[in-house]
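Mods, move this if it's the wrong board.
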Amino acid sequence: MNSKHHPFTIERSSAKYFHGREEELNLFEGLLHETVYKRIGCSLLIQGPPGVGKSVLLDQCKQRAKKKQLAYCQPHK
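Not the wrong board. Structure tokens:
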């Protein structure tokens, strides 16, 4: 394992295909809209049990924020 953070951490790559979670992504798009056009700051918490796709959802959110040239925090791994 080649993780810098913890010797028992397995690095995951982004999913090649992403489907589902349209409701969550629509909510995130709404937050982005308010941030950009209404100039209202926000934060986002993604939580759930292991294996439900939190990291993949976060990657999708990060890509959408980058498209709008918004800052984002890296997840704690």
